[in-house]
Amino acid sequence: MFASLVLLTLLPAVFGQSWQQYLAGLVQTLNTDGLTTLASASAALNNSNNGQQLAQSLSTGNWTLFAPNNQAFSSSPVNLTSNATSVLDLLSYHVVSGNFTDQTSPYPNITLGRTLLNDSSLVWLEGNESQVLAWSNGSDGLFVLNNGTTVPVVNKTTYQNIQVLVINSVLQIPQNLSDTLANSTYDVTSVAGGLSSINIPTTNSTLLDVLNNAHGITIFAPNNTAIASANCISGLLPNNTALIALFGNHIINGTTVYSPGFTNGNNYTSASGEPFAFKTNSSGVYVSSAGSNWARIMRSDVLTSNGVVHVIDSVLLDTKVNVSAAVSAYQSATSVAASTTIETGPVGVTPTTFAGH
Ligand SMILES: *[C@@H]1O[C@H](CO)[C@@H](O)[C@H](O)[C@H]1NC(C)=O
Ligand SMILES: *[C@@H]1O[C@H](CO)[C@@H](O)[C@H](O)[C@H]1NC(C)=O
Ligand SMILES: *[C@@H]1O[C@H](CO)[C@@H](O)[C@H](O)[C@H]1NC(C)=O
Ligand SMILES: *[C@@H]1O[C@H](CO)[C@@H](O)[C@H](O)[C@H]1NC(C)=O
Ligand SMILES: *[C@@H]1O[C@H](CO)[C@@H](O)[C@H](O)[C@H]1NC(C)=O
Ligand SMILES: *[C@@H]1O[C@H](CO)[C@@H](O)[C@H](O)[C@H]1NC(C)=O
Ligand SMILES: *[C@@H]1O[C@H](CO)[C@@H](O)[C@H](O)[C@H]1NC(C)=O
Ligand SMILES: *[C@@H]1O[C@H](CO)[C@@H](O)[C@H](O)[C@H]1NC(C)=O
Ligand SMILES: *[C@@H]1O[C@H](CO)[C@@H](O)[C@H](O)[C@H]1NC(C)=O
Ligand SMILES: *[C@@H]1O[C@H](CO)[C@@H](O)[C@H](O)[C@H]1NC(C)=O
Ligand SMILES: *[C@@H]1O[C@H](CO)[C@@H](O)[C@H](O)[C@H]1NC(C)=O
Ligand SMILES: *[C@@H]1O[C@H](CO)[C@@H](O)[C@H](O)[C@H]1NC(C)=O
């Protein structure tokens, strides 16, 4: 007992030396590659406990660093000297666990990796998982999907166990769900309006409030044209129960399912208790709810602080409800989330969720 206490007090000093050397080497590599702004932000990791922990994490395992160049920082509103916590959060979001050199699928497939961003004021995924980053491999090389835009990888280098992918924008940490839906970039503002006008009985909250507060949520959001042309919605309008059922069939409750999960081997159950199905053909990937019409997924993997939104081109015409299936899917999602381990490779490729079984 006494011996192990002595060891515990000695260990940090020993680790300290090695990770400090490691960090100094990283800073030097970044400087050599002209990434001087990122280099000084990285050097500043030494100045806080959380920063030191980040440097220590990097020093073992395999990592991919999406490294904004100087031009990226100079055109970003981020002030790297103002708030140490938010700078650390931002840097954490640019670091992905794993080496994806041979593990990035060609576009239109999207690869997602788990970042180091886990600040609970910015991330509310199921099982307290860290936020993800999404990218792909296009005809002109790798690019990150961020904030409705594509950010190309402009250069590459390595430092020990880190694959450094240089980008010319600072990536934006995913926003909360209601801000994301309300953002015209994604063409789903009608869904934001719809969800905020649906009241949940016996509570004083709207469906949007419920979704905003969820830990792990997947939403198939019909785009504005789709909502405008769905006759069924005006038909249901006075009937709150039917609207909750309809929108519930666009939602997976308690599980964040990214596009690699859109395969028929995965059985996902909607928040209304209906089974989702997926199909892929030459024109794209499609989703349906319990044999409803097929909706095409127009834009996948719009990340939010608590889950993901996939924009679809039509409303899923299904107002059926199966309460017990919904409850058991949520319970199963909760227990899966509690036992999830941190991915060091592509997220969502091997099914880890069996909601609905
Ligand atoms: C890092 O990746 C190499 C292959 O590139 C692998 O052999 C090794 O086990 C990985 N290390 C960790 C800690 O995942
Ligand atoms: C960044 O923040 C620091 C500290 O709050 C402040 O002194 C500096 O003027 C800010 N820089 C810019 C460009 O706003
Ligand atoms: C710094 O940023 C964090 C996270 O963004 C925020 O919670 C905190 O209030 C900020 N601190 C100051 C002093 O502005
Ligand atoms: C691309 O995604 C589709 C649909 O999810 C899947 O069927 C296919 O296997 C994926 N291809 C690769 C190379 O990962
Ligand atoms: C995000 O996208 C919006 C709309 O395209 C744009 O106005 C905004 O500047 C972008 N924000 C960042 C941080 O890139
Ligand atoms: C790309 O990175 C290499 C070092 O890895 C550097 O020598 C070169 O100048 C960089 N190119 C550009 C365009 O930044
Ligand atoms: C990443 O993996 C590739 C191929 O497996 C390997 O060549 C490269 O050295 C690895 N990079 C790092 C930084 O470990
Ligand atoms: C859209 O998102 C971007 C970045 O996330 C933000 O700068 C912009 O203000 C948002 N627009 C609205 C209307 O919220
Ligand atoms: C319901 O919410 C409204 C608006 O936030 C508030 O004014 C009202 O007092 C709340 N009612 C109850 C019963 O909580
Ligand atoms: C509202 O919709 C529910 C579910 O679709 C249905 O059972 C109920 O009869 C409807 N109520 C009215 C007043 O139409
Ligand atoms: C998700 O399930 C929980 C627990 O059953 C429930 O409280 C919540 O309202 C559900 N959310 C949705 C959107 O159905
Ligand atoms: C929105 O959906 C309509 C069909 O309802 C489709 O024609 C259109 O291309 C979609 N818009 C975008 C931006 O994907």
List the keywords:
single chain, 357 residues, alpha+beta, FAS1 domain, 2 domains, 7-stranded mixed sheet, 6-stranded mixed sheet, 12 helices, 34% helix, 22% strand, binds 2-acetamido-2-deoxy-beta-D-glucopyranose, FAS1 domain-containing protein, signal, FAS1_domain
List the ions, cofactors and other small molecules found in this model. Answer: 2-acetamido-2-deoxy-beta-D-glucopyranose
Low-confidence stretches: 1-16, 352-357
Kindly identify the CATH topology of the largest domain. FAS1 domain
CATH-defined architecture of the largest domain: Roll
Q: Note the run of SSEs as H and E.
A: HHHEHHEEEEEEHHHEHHHEEEEEH
Share of helix, binned: 25-40%
> In angstroms, what separates the terminal alpha carbons?
46 Å
How would you describe the overall organization of this protein?
It is built from 12 helices and 13 strands. The chain is elongated. It has 357 residues and is of the alpha+beta class. The longest helix is centred in the N-terminal third of the chain and has 31 residues, at 2-32. The termini are far apart. The strands form 2 sheets. Strands 2-1-7-6-5-4-3 form a 7-stranded mixed β-sheet. A 6-stranded mixed β-sheet has the order 9-8-13-12-11-10. β4 (132-138) and β5 form a beta hairpin. It folds into 2 domains: 2-167, Roll (FAS1 domain); 177-338, FAS1 domain (Roll). The structure holds 2-acetamido-2-deoxy-beta-D-glucopyranose (12 copies). The site of one 2-acetamido-2-deoxy-beta-D-glucopyranose has 4 residues, from β6. Residues 1-171, 182-316 form the FAS1 domain. Residues 1-16 form the signal peptide. It holds the Pfam family Fasciclin.
